[in-house]
UniProtKB/TrEMBL annotation:
Subcellular location, record wording: Cell membrane
One Gene Ontology MF term: transmembrane transporter activity
One term under GO cellular component: plasma membrane
Membrane topology summary: Multi-pass membrane protein
The entry's keywords: Cell membrane, Membrane, Transmembrane, Transmembrane helix, Transport
Transmembrane residue ranges: 29-47, 53-71, 100-120, 140-158, 170-188, 200-221, 242-264, 296-313, 348-367, 373-396, 417-437, 465-484
Protein name: Unannotated protein
PANTHER family for this protein: AMINO ACID TRANSPORTER-RELATED, GLUTAMATE_GAMMA-AMINOBUTYRATE ANTIPORTER-RELATED
Keyword Cell membrane carried by entry: yes
Pfam families with a match to the protein in the record: AA_permease_2
Length: 499
């Protein structure tokens, strides 16, 4: 058999794949990807950078999102094995590299859910619904409920659990649409704040500050391929769902941010809480109904955070489980539940990691306010960007090494077009990774003002020790997981490549 048309898998992989059920239709994939792609937790941070934030958001949509979508449309519709990104990197560079990419891709999610989303959701509830004291029993309870509801959605059989991310995507449309309409009404009544063209002139300082955030906003096209063998027709549906969700997602970011900038002075847009602050300000046009409408919107905001976490758990945990049943990580986590068809062990691992991280943050790091916790959280949730340093080059290499595999969709321009989009996307995630690991270094090189102590609340030595130390722990865990998987790898089976 042509070696380009087969792959080496394991006996455990074949056993576990028998538990998968095809349940994702095209509309499910569109809503799933939209739920992964659009996160409301960062809208305020982008808007707080003023018109420049909006300009960079649009520019990156053109120079990153478009080539990224084209790349994932090809590789996602051609190589349709469960665990997508792991399988692509494995086929291109081998099991060890695939396992490393899978761990980097996965580990972001429990830290993000337990260390960021749970905290933002708690603050949104406390500020708009009912006050919760930091460090109280209610604080712990709310965050733990948030985490484990997200995990519960991931554990549920996909044919049922998919409705939660689907609903999350619809809630995003409703919340952002209603807010945008309200902002226009507010502007018509009170006047549009507006901004001049000079305010939109992009600067390197804002760009370098926003790069990791904007790139983190704009990833998720490949996440649905974590469940590729649970799709009804991935060869046809992946390209359409990727392109459609990309266009809708960029619009859902751009319109509300533009509305915020048009109707509110910049000093009223306050970082993470900025979106709900903007909601409270603009909803004043509804008079006596403003308070209840703000509360309803806050609940919708919290539900979008919950479904963001859930959808990334659904895809990310599957990718880790596939790496595990293929012998590239601890095989224990490669088991799928026979009744549910979901990787329950990997799901529970994510929940435990998220819970421990949250408890440590509240108990030992001033409820997450300590700068050292923020640094560790920043690097932990940046590992997803690092994983694309394997995923994007893998898509290009597969065009070379597996060129005979039928491609339902191909990046325009032949091999040159594929090389170009792979190079562009890899450049952006490399830049975002560097800025996350070594902030201030490019600013120094480009003679851009940057106050490290003021930005991070600590010195560079402490920052690098924390970031590189955290990253080192992740790499060590990945290596140990690979070594433990040796017995499973030895039970090798050769099978045709799906596609």
């Amino acid at each position: 058999m042509d070696p380009e048309l087969v792959e080496a898998t394991t006996a455990l992989a074949l056993e576990e794949k028998g538990k998968l059920v095809k349940s994702l239709r095209r509309i499910d994939m569109l809503l799933f990807t939209l739920c992964a792609f659009v996160g409301l937790d960062t809208l305020g941070l982008v808007a707080s950078n003023g018109p420049q934030g909006f300009v960079w958001l649009i520019l990156l949509a053109v120079v990153f999102v478009l080539p990224y979508a084209l790349l994932m449309a090809e590789v996602g519709s051609t190589f349709t094995e469960e665990g997508g990104p792991y399988e692509w990197v494995k086929l291109a560079f081998g099991r060890f590299q695939g396992g490393l990419a899978a761990v980097l891709y996965w580990v972001t999610n429990p830290f993000w859910v337990g260390g960021s989303l749970a905290f933002i959701a708690t603050e949104a509830w406390s500020s708009n619904i009912h006050a919760i004291g930091a460090g109280t029993a209610g604080d712990y309870a709310f965050k733990l409920i948030f985490i484990w509801v997200s995990i519960g959605v991931a554990i549920a059989a996909l044919k049922r659990g998919k409705w939660i991310p689907n609903a999350g995507a619809i809630i995003r449309v409703i919340v952002l649409g209603f807010f945008s309409i309200t902002a226009i009404i507010y502007g018509a009544k009170h006047g549009f704040h507006g901004f001049g063209f000079s305010d939109m002139s992009p600067t390197l300082s804002v760009f370098l500050a926003l790069v990791p955030l904007l790139l983190f906003n704009y990833v998720g096209f490949e996440l649905q391929n974590g469940a590729a063998e649970e799709m009804q027709d991935p060869t046809k549906d992946v390209p359409k769902s990727v392109i459609q969700s990309g266009a809708l997602g960029v619009t859902m970011y751009a319109v509300p941010i533009l509305c915020i900038l048009l109707v509110l002075p910049l000093d009223k847009v306050t970082g993470i809480a900025g979106f709900l602050d903007a909601v409270a300000a603009t909803f004043s046009v509804y008079g006596g109904a403003a308070h209840i409408l703000t509360q309803i919107t806050a609940i919708g905001f919290i539900l979008t955070l919950l479904t963001s976490g859930a959808v990334w758990m659904i895809g990310g945990d599957r990718i880790l489980a596939v790496a595990s049943y293929d012998g590239a990580f601890f095989p224990f986590f490669g088991r799928f539940n026979a009744r549910l068809g979901t990787p329950v062990r990997a799901n529970v691992l994510s929940g435990l990691v998220a819970s421990v991280f949250m408890i440590v943050a509240v108990a030992a790091f001033d409820s997450g306010a300590d700068s050292k916790f923020y640094i560790v959280l920043t690097i932990a949730i940046s590992t997803t960007l690092m994983s694309y340093l394997w995923i994007f080059p893998a898509a290009w290499r597969l065009r070379k090494t597996h060129g005979h595999v039928h491609r339902p969709y191909s990046v325009p321009g032949g091999k040159g077009g594929m090389a170009l989009v792979a190079a562009i996307t890899t450049f952006w995630v490399a830049l975002g990774t560097w800025v996350g690991l070594f902030p201030g270094t490019l600013e120094s090189l480009l003679n851009v003002s940057y106050d490290f102590q003021d930005t991070w609340g600590t010195g560079r030595a402490t920052y690098e020790w924390l970031t590189l130390g955290t990253l080192g722990v992740v790499f060590v865990i990945a290596v140990i997981g690979y070594l433990v998987g040796g017995k499973v790898r030895r039970e090798q089976v050769v099978v045709p490549i799906e596609g």
